[in-house]
Amino acid sequence: MNDADPFFGLSQMHVLMTAVGAAVFIAHLLPRILFKSAASSSAIMMLAGLVIFNLIPGMPDIPDPTVSPALWEITSEIVVIVVLFATGLQIDDIESWKRWQPTVRLLVIAMPLTIAATAFLGWALAGMTVAGAVLLGAVLSPTDPVLAGDVQVGPPLEGQEHPVRFTLTAEAGLNDGLAFPFVYLGLIIAAQGADPSVWIVEWMTRDVIYRIAVGAIVGAFFGWLLGRSLFSSWGSAAIEKSGPGVLALGAVLLCYGMVELVEGYGFIGAFMAGLVCRRVQKKHHFHKRLHGFSEAVEHVLTAFLLLLLGGVLPALWPVLDWSHTLIGFGLILVIRPLVGWVALWRTGLPPSDRLIVSFFGVRGIGSVYYIGYATGHMEFVNEDQLWALVAYTIFASALIHGATSFMVERYTSQPA
Length: 416
Hints:
Elements: H1 12-34, H2 41-55, H3 70-90, H4 97-124, H5 130-139, H6 163-178, H7 180-192, H8 196-230, H9 233-240, H10 245-261, H11 266-280, H12 286-316, H13 322-343, H14 351-359, H15 365-377, H16 383-404, H17 406-412
Helix pairs in contact: 1-2, 2-12, 2-16, 3-6, 3-11, 3-12, 3-15, 4-5, 4-6, 4-13, 5-7, 5-15, 6-11, 6-14, 7-8, 8-10, 8-11, 10-11, 10-12, 12-16, 13-14, 13-16, 15-16
């Protein structure tokens, strides 16, 4: 047959489906066979993406995030809001202030210090503009509820609530939204300059106070409304006969959309909705079904995004040099452990707990969303460096934290 014969031609879509399917299957199965854990799946997925998109003939080109950030922004946004809702659902016990104190300290102390230290390194070592450096610190500041699933609490009603796991889970659930004021700060500095007298009042009142408060209040209201609807007498009869998929996805999209429409932070709203919905009926078995569906959606979209991120690494890495390497490893191995240790001082956590919580500041999908959002709304001088450094840091975090997450499993299996 000649080369133009449509029956024997290789469809680009079928090549893509075959390669992606094989990569996802191997990346999720291999760690469970070799290490009896799923902890290294993220790094393997990115490596698989690097191989299939750069070495297999017939694969489509990946959209360059420095040119077309919209795909990256939208995909990562959906992943994060679904997983934040699921994260709120899975926390069993929130009543004790003692349990929340380490999380609050990480959010109030460790997160701003992380942003400041990372921004300083970006400015001093990599020669970034002030706006680019602030944006770098902001997008790399949140810990990740997606890639850090192995070090967080278990699904609803399973009771895996060791203080280490609770702190890492609650921190990741909230700091994805709390990074947004600092992302806006980078955008404001890029547009209006670095003189704080020009923008400090508006930034504090609108981007910090108003948007955080609205995100928390509206998200909590929709979580309560969802819980009252699901667990009323008529709602309970309905959910017993229906699958959780449409309910979970519809609820999180409704909540997120409404929070964003009133100019709040939708990430905070999604987490609060899951957290408050769970409180309406803490022990209801339907929480497991809601969480299970949310987790399935999260895994599918995360796999797709990690493959793309791995595939685009060779195009991004040429702009990296020794200074970017220092920033990435400095954040993971020095800045986060140090500021985490300081923030957790006198919280009641024993030194071993403080050490593990401080070290496991996993970076991931939230950073992809923020850099996609920022570069989609404004052009930065250091845009290619920002994307490359974010991708590199996520990859390094997946390798380092994935290879060491067994420590959390072993440690938290002991009595708290």
